[in-house]
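Give me structure tokens for this 204-residue protein.
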Amino acid sequence: MTTAGRPRGGTSSLRAKLYAWARTLHLYLSLVAFLSILFFAVTGLTLNHPEWFGEGKVGKLSGTLPHAPYLEGESVDWLALAEDLRALGLRGRVADRGQSGDQAWLSFRAPGYGADAQVDLKTGAYTLTLTEAGLVAVLNDLHKGRDTPSGWRWVLDLSALFLALVSLTGLLLSLLFRKTRKAALLTLLSGLLLFGGLALWAAL
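Here you go.
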């Protein structure tokens, strides 16, 4: 009598154990990676069609920072300057900064968000350009790992590992189960040829 869902009776004990291990691993990895798979599937689509969601909002602000001057001799007190700008509600990491004479600029970046500040280092007068691209842009930047904290890169790495393991264990299950082995190999070969051909066509 053959147990449903397992390799047929002639399969070795080792193969049966490998099948059971792969099935369990595939099931639980799929559950753990469910949201990750859904997230990358949806954001893969939105990344491919940015025109569906518009350009976002751009605004300008100006004023005077309270703790000028920010020059210490010829050096800029970047920490004090950045913190005073953050007190205005700016967020994200400082992606770029620079100085030319009494003028300085800082760029703050976060997923779906940008703030570019021009500051007079002596008087504290500033001009801000704020860009907020909306929720979809936030999700797209999370997908790409752009302007994200280092911890998020670990999330991306783990997601990639989980997705690879889900794929490999699914393939292993198909190959270990004798009834589906031939169909699995033909489907795999067809998929490789189709995807490889499309990738080659797109690259040329």
